[in-house]
Specification:
464 residues, five-stranded parallel beta sheet, binds magnesium ion, 9% strand, binds adenosine-5'-diphosphate, 8 strands, globular
Length: 464
């Protein structure tokens, strides 16, 4: 089969097959988080079980878990990923609180049962029971995506494919997962990220087992694929996806797809695939407005109160503050809220705004870690233009706009002065930077597309 696109992907597979050396990872934690944090929290975590895409870690208490989840989980996952790329989730088991209290996630599914799941494709097909329609909160930014997702569940193959796109952390995976949960009792549901799809694809090629691979994916009656943008530039994978897609549509299987951008905006993807992806219903999810953010915070707080049977000490002022300050996406919003809750719990106090500002300093004050270089690279990748072109003196719009966006972000997200920024953009004058900032500020106000792009870029930069 196609050998042409395997170069970088082969590395990926060999990484997948490794098993983790936990003490090595612990060493890395110590380096990343510092010895104080390490010795008070992270040293006490044990690795209980390793799967290809997630880990189960043991922690002493529930509080311990909440604390770690709210403060360190993102970075921990990042670290673990650097050892084993395929890990995309960490779950916790509480070891000491009473004899049989286990994490909510394990209520229906004790560890003994989990360990029986073989390292098979099925293992990656697990739907997360916590991401369902009931706890997906509706707002103006996601209303249509939500109602279309529900409609697909009522009448399969009405919109085929259903294609949902939007920036990171806006609820795409949540919706796809909810659809899977809803349909799984009556259908053969396949839920997979494009990245995992590739993993199995490559593995099957290596094992000379393409027949099984094809069978496996083509027999589903509902095929849900997350983050399809991952197939960009991967020719062999696109070929396989195209055939899978066609054979599913032929037998009227429902296909649901998520992506970070509209089908026609997927560069380095074959035209015939883009046109297939555009053949059904295309819906976008936008960044949440204040109302939705507030609703999500309140719902979370209510859940916590119910779950832990304790009050949370978070008042209206703080809720409003968090909703206003968190600008990029819902994942970030929840992360911030978790930190605030953990802090209030550990100090047993009702927080005020200035406490919050302190707790969140590192979240809102990321300017220091974002460099002009990083912005330039991210922007040129995003618009798919070579960095050298973006920095060049050429004035054509396809280059000038991204250049201005990069300058705008450099001004907004770093502490560099206007002249400094100008210098970093091939020695331009600071007035050019001022002009860029003004232009982009104006465009963000009247041009939805520009607003979306800039928000997405901010998310990307903050995520890394
Ligand atoms: P994406 O796949 O678009 O990057 P996710 O689906 O992973 O985003 O969402 C990020 C986080 O935000 C998840 O924890 C998800 O449950 C939560 N979330 C997103 N949108 C909503 C919503 N409308 N209501 C409740 N939680 C949400
Ligand atoms: Mg996602």
């Amino acid at each position: 089969m196609e050998k042409k696109s395997l170069n970088s992907q082969t590395i990926f597979v060999s990484e997948e097959e490794e098993t983790l050396n936990w003490s090595e990872i612990q060493n890395n934690f110590e380096k990343t988080f510092g010895s104080e944090v390490y010795s008070s929290w992270l040293r006490n975590i044990s690795l209980l079980k390793e799967y290809n895409d997630y880990l189960i870690l043991g922690v002493p208490t529930r509080f311990f878990r909440d604390w770690i989840v709210s403060r360190y989980l993102d970075k921990m996952l990042e670290q673990v990923k650097s050892f084993k790329l395929s890990i995309n989730r960490i779950e916790f088991k509480i070891l000491e609180e009473g004899k049989s209290i286990v994490d909510e996630k394990f209520k229906n599914e004790n560890l003994g049962k989990i360990s029986e799941i073989k390292d098979s494709i099925l293992n990656y097909n697990r739907l997360n029971p916590n991401l369902n329609f009931e706890n997906f909160i509706e707002g103006s930014s996601n209303q249509i995506a939500l109602s279309s997702s529900k409609k697909v569940c009522q009448q399969v193959s009405r919109y085929n494919p259903l294609y949902i796109y939007g920036g990171v952390g806006l609820g795409k995976t949540h919706l796809l997962n909810a659809i899977g949960l809803e349909l799984q009792s009556k259908n053969n549901v396949m839920f997979i990220s494009a990245e995992r799809f590739m993993y199995h694809f490559i593995k099957s090629i290596k094992k000379n087992d393409m027949v099984n691979f094809k069978d496996f994916f083509r027999k589903s009656s509902v095929f849900i694929i997350d983050d399809i943008q991952f197939i960009r530039g991967k020719e062999g994978l696109q070929e396989e996806f195209f055939h899978t897609f066609n054979s599913l549509i032929e037998k009227s299987s429902q296909i649901i797809i998520s992506s970070d951008r509209a089908p026609m905006k997927l560069d380095r993807v074959q035209e015939r695939i883009k046109s297939r992806l555009s053949g059904g219903l295309i819906i976008d999810i936008d960044t949440p407005d204040l109302e939705l953010k507030t609703k999500i915070i309140k719902q979370r707080l209510e859940d916590i109160t119910n779950q832990f049977k304790e009050n949370h000490n978070i008042n209206e002022d703080v809720i409003n503050f968090i909703a206003k300050e968190s600008k990029t996406n819902i994942r970030e919003l929840i992360g911030i809220l978790n930190r605030v809750i953990a802090f209030s719990r550990i100090h047993k106090k009702t927080l005020n705004i200035s406490d919050c500002k302190n707790i969140l300093k590192d979240v809102f004050n990321q300017a220091k870690t974002i460099t002009v270089d990083k912005i330039q690279n991210t922007v040129s990748n995003f618009f798919n233009i070579p960095l050298s072109e973006m920095l060049s003196q050429r004035r054509s719009r396809p280059l000038a706009r991204p250049r201005q966006v990069a300058m705008f972000l450099a001004k907004k997200m770093t502490t560099r002065s206007l002249p400094e920024i100008g210098r970093r953009f091939a020695n331009r004058d600071h007035t050019t930077v001022i002009h860029a900032v003004k232009t982009i500020t104006r465009l963000i106000e009247k041009d939805e597309e520009m607003k979306k792009n800039v928000n997405q870029l901010k998310s990307l930069l903050l995520e890394e």
